[in-house]
Amino acid sequence: MCSCVFNDGRSQQFTRNNDNNFAPVNLAKNKINKTANSVTASVYGLKSRTAIYRKGLGCVLLPINSDVEKIKSAKTPIRNTEKINRPYPYGDLQQKDTFFSNIDYEQIDEIVNASFDNNEIQKTRSVLVIYKNQIIAEKYADSLNKDSKLLGWSMTKSIMATLYGILQYEGKLNVNDPTNIKAWQNDERAKITYNDLLHMSSGLAWNEDYATISDVTKMLFLTDNMGKVQEEKLAEAAPNKQWNYSSGTTNLLSSLLRKEFNSYKEYLNFLYQKLIDRIGMKSMFIETDAAGTYVGSSYGWATTRDWGKFGLLYLHNGNWDGDQLFDKNWSDYVAEPAPNSDGLYGAHFWLNTPDKMPHAPMDTYYADGFQGQRVYIVPSKDLVVVRMGLASGDAFDFDWFLGGISKGIN
Questions:
Q1: What is the CA 259 to chain-centroid distance, rounded?
Q2: 54-63 tens-digit pLDDT
Q3: Helical H segments across 236-324, by residue range
């Protein structure tokens, strides 16, 4: 509630009826304090918790018995929001209409429009289709538009992985090196590399279950320093021998990233100076935990068009209008199947398989978030497709969606 109201200016009623309209979140009652930039929530009057908003950092759920004033006064990143007088995606101006003779516009429009049919079930919020850097289709649900900031959930993991690609390209880190975490040096965890963490193949114990009190729910809702939770887990298997999806792993990577800099200020700014603002994703921000570490697992916000820019960065193999952010082979790296993932997962990106989306191109790889947030990169079609929503699984057919759009490009 805090994030929707203060990050994007949504009303309490709209947030309750849309973003928070699923069990068990919809049991909560919220009180908004605009003066204190805070929201307090409780369920049946029990277990009251408060979240506060800090400009530039977004909202944070206050840990129990926390130092509120210290959290409120946290440093904020320096942003470059200067407007660029060029058309999207390299600037802020509207694109000129471009007609491509190889595109079946009727086919693509039909799929995009149908994505919003029966929207009480499909719950699509936005769709953006980009071909050869040109927006060829775009649509938003009622009360949302191109300026609406939407939560990417686990698509944020792909953002975090990209920061490691940038560090490696700049010669500051090698992902095949061990992490050198001090607490791991006397046991089998000493062999875990950044590569193992990026592939979710560290062998560390983790339970990613949102329906119960689990590792991930305790991390997101009870912990002030989210990066420490995975670090404290013991090994269940040797590195590179077991695949286990873990939001804790991504937040550990965020915490390890922080150690690459001489000051907290450098860490805070790196995300924006080297990636987000560098490619003009001016709407985007990632919220931090109470310890000041970016919640790279889950809390990245951006407009649909800015999520599209992230997809284009990968479509162009790290080159943004002549500026090389990461090595061109990094795109291949993140799209290469991780060991023991059944071909479903790369390095913090998901991959297509014949069993998953048989009607979509097999070279598709993508950022994937809770409730059907997607940024699809389809190199064989020179295509990026963004879908933001509040439902996935049986409620929305991604194979039909991406397969139908791809079919419209000959």
A1: 22
A2: 999 999 999 9
A3: 247-258, 264-271, 304-315
